[in-house]
Write a structure and sequence with these properties.
Low-confidence stretches: 9-56
Mean pLDDT: 83
Order of helices and strands: HHHHHEEEEEEEEHEHEHEHE
Helix content: 10-25%
Distance between the termini: 101 Å
Structural class: alpha+beta
Strand order of the largest sheet: 1-2-3-4-5-6-7-8
Number of strands: 12
Radius of gyration: 46 Å
Largest sheet: 8 strands, antiparallel, barrel
Shape: elongated
CATH architecture of the domain at 66-239: Beta Barrel
CATH topology of the domain at 66-239: Porin
Number of helices: 9
Oligomer: single chain
CATH class of the domain at 66-239: Mainly Beta
Length: 464
Amino acid sequence: MRTQTILGLSTALLTFTLAPLAHAGEPGAEAEGGISLSSEDGVETSGSADAEGPKAKEDKWIHRWAPEPMMGEIGIYGGVFLPANNLELFKADPNLMDQGFKPFKPVAPDIGIRAGFYPIKWVGAELEGGVMPMRLDDGSDASAIGWTVRGHAVAQLAKWSVTPFALAGIGALGVASDANAVGNDVDFALHFGLGAKVFINQNFGVRLDVRDVLGFRRGVDSQLGSNNFEILLGLYYTFGRKPRAKAEEPDTDGDGILDKDDQCVNEPGPAPTGCPIPEGGPVDSDGDGIYDHEDKCPDEPGVAEYDGCPIPDTDGDGILDPDDKCVDEPETQNDYEDTDGCPDEVPEEVKAFTGVIEGIYFDTNKDTIKPTSEKILKKALKVLEDFPSVRLKIDGHTDSRGDAAHNQDLSERRAKSVKKWFEDHGIDGNRFETQGFGPDQPIETNDTKDGRAKNRRIEFKLIK
């Protein structure tokens, strides 16, 4: 009676688990079962596999995660162990009175771990270890820890994400308890059973096992013959699957240009636009060398990089986007870093050395810089070193005394002397331009000594 009940329960559980397979290939199976089978990228599919073709069939969940060769599994399980009333796990202690067979209560929890390897998808091997906390059914309610270490071969029907299997194996069935209970004993045991795995996705799955563990039965002949049933539910992690190929992107018109890059999805045409060439041959309306059927801006000359459109200047600052570090913010035109396309302000240190530079002196009627000028020149040198993008125009000016041509030449030579001083101190000469203005741009009257002194000057100006 007990065996028939267990077998009946096992059949019911396996039938429930394998039910999706019964209608896996039937039209409308998804609607009837209330389950929507979807492709890997989440797009629903419907209808029969035959109607959709092999590719669609393989991409349904019921086919997608079928077992593969060289796969491994590791997992845990839990369930119930149903020891038979004639299971003999007992070791007598001659130091105790009243030693003899003691039965176990008919239901015990069952937990453990397992690992498996499948060199071919149809057949594999597994190892398990588990414990079954039990109690004696002799009125004492004493506890005993049942345990098992076992291995088995597995044969599975590896066609679907729901995979039926059968197994058979060998192992040890033991017990650990106080000597007043049943002591410590271990026996050889066989086991066999049926089950089903459900591969939820590429890495995780659940499984159901129903087994008969054949242990030693009560008696003096110590023969196998005790049928102990297990019902186990497990969770496992798989590894070793081959990477799945990405779903092919659509090319509706079959012109070799994917829809995401095709400007004429329903009309075949050449690259780069995928649009057909108009009758009468290609036309280039704007003369930029890009035919209209490939030109997104057929009325404006452009470049191929922008599909025939002009190179954009998003912020309108005159610096084209490929060269503009701040595409959405216009450049501040202040002669300081005006080529990067970003707004900025002239640093205060640089501002201090623009305009008239007081403290640069020359010998009378010569372009020789006086030693007293070193202090101010070294400060300017520090700014040029700290701001390597700064370029300067050095202007020389004189007062009005003397020959105008001589003064013009003198102002030019003095400006060049300042440039040479910076070059001699490590600054690249390409960062400078020089010009002499003679007496033509006075800032004070030349009628007084103080006015003439101010007119004899050097000015620095920022240049691009």
